[in-house]
Amino acid sequence: MIDISIRELKNKTEIPYNLLFLADDSKDAVEDYINRGTCYGAYIGQTIVGIYVLLKTRPFTVELVNIAVKKEYQNKGIGKKMVLDAINRAKIGNFKVLDVGTGNCGIHQLALYQKCGFRITHVDHDFFKRHFDEKIIENGIECLDMIRMRIEL
Ligand code: COA
Question: Own/partner pairs for 127-131, CB < 8 Å, 24+ apart?
Fold first, then answer.
């Protein structure tokens, strides 16, 4: 098991944008939620290996709007540790609901969120068609719909 520590990234200069862009192709969206949300970095020693962002949306509701692990550190359990950390921080922050959204093609992501307790609430059909000009293909599947998921805290 890899030992990581997770802490809030208070200074904007600490934020590794290249990691955020692994999870989100939209530079405008990333910039927007970075300014409004709270970023957390996962570290091995002094090296940042992952990031996630929590954004308050509605009363008592927070959304995990971005989560990414450096390619060479993926599939080692770090993503799961970060999702569980996000759930814990949301609970401590007195939120009642944690939301997340992922593409229909994100097999790994859908497995990860469900293993951490998220349930599917609805599907935003054609979300990716509406918001992106270029086709996104992952796991040989075209990314068209946004699967919206939630965990009650
Ligand atoms: N079927 C079933 N389970 C799968 C799976 C599959 N095809 N692929 C992965 N999993 C499971 C793993 O087994 C693990 O569960 P376990 O601990 O019970 O074995 C769980 O998913 C999490 O794996 P983990 O190693 O913690 O994930 P990670 O460190 O690779 O991080 C991401 C996951 C998604 C954050 C990482 O792959 C990433 O940065 N991807 C690019 C950015 C991205 O897509 N972000 C999400 C946007 S919605």
Answer: 127/101, 128/103, 131/26
